[in-house]
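Example for tutorial group B:
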């Protein structure tokens, strides 16, 4: 176990080094300019090397079940310094954020988008009870905990939220690091995109806000402050929004679209 953990730590350092060596890269797609952060390359490297066909020899030890369980269990300790950074980013802009308070509260309604738009699509694709778990939110810790407590992970709902959690972990940061600059080119205000970056996922928020900073470095402090404040607010109010708004709305829509099923 100790040797496998040592392999994992060395592997992580090598991936970080490789990603930082690649650095920030900009790709032009038509009229859009997409920024790819070192975080994106780190995710891609670990995803590719984790494919079963490559998972042999030392990589088999690195991607062992023990290391995967260790990483998921201790992920919170990696996030704690990031949460402290959020507070440091928010503090200098506190008065400005308070003046925009209602906007931050209003954007919480965006959490209902996964139900309003995702549930009909999921049902159209053939999902049933799995759609309840996969469309309740972005599939982060809050949704995972709620579905686990109410249905257990062995249920169709549990499989739905767990699938989304894994997909979000693998592709979420990449998706939002690409989407944010595209929306910026479409004319959305950078302040609005910064607030929208605080979606309840630390990795997705970091990827989205960092890609905006890379495009508009002169507004770095504002972007990080708005994104951090939004992230903290989403983490706090997200559970209440889910329980009191998203869940009743989802039940109503599910009964409406899937008649005759409980």
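The residue assignment follows.
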């Amino acid at each position: 176990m100790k040797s496998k953990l040592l392999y994992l730590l060395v592997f992580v350092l090598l991936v970080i080094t490789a990603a930082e060596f690649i650095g920030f890269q900009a790709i032009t797609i038509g009229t859009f300019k997409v920024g790819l952060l070192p975080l994106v390359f780190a995710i891609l490297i670990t995803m590719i090397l984790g494919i079963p066909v490559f998972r042999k020899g030392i990589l088999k030890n690195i991607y062992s079940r023990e290391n995967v369980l260790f990483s998921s269990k201790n992920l919170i300790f990696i996030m704690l310094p990031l949460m402290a950074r959020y507070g440091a980013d928010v503090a200098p802009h506190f008065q400005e954020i308070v003046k925009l308070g209602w906007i931050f509260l209003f954007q919480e309604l965006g959490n209902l988008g996964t139900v309003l738009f995702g549930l009909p699509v999921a049902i159209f694709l053939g999902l049933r009870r799995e759609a309840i778990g996969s469309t309740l939110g972005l599939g982060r810790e809050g949704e995972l905990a709620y579905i686990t407590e109410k249905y257990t992970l062995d249920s169709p709902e549990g499989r739905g939220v767990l699938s989304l959690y894994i997909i979000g972990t693998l592709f979420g940061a990449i998706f939002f690091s690409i989407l944010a600059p595209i929306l910026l080119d479409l004319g959305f205000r950078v302040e609005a995109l910064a607030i929208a970056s605080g979606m309840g996922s630390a990795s997705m928020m970091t990827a989205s806000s960092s890609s905006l900073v890379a495009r508009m470095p002169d507004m770095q402090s504002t972007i990080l402050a708005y994104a951090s404040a939004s992230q903290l607010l989403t983490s706090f109010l997200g559970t209440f929004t889910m329980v009191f708004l998203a869940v009743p709305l989802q039940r109503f829509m599910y009964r409406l679209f899937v008649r005759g099923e409980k």
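Strands lie at 25-29, 32-36. Compare this with the pattern of hydrophobic and polar residues in the output above.
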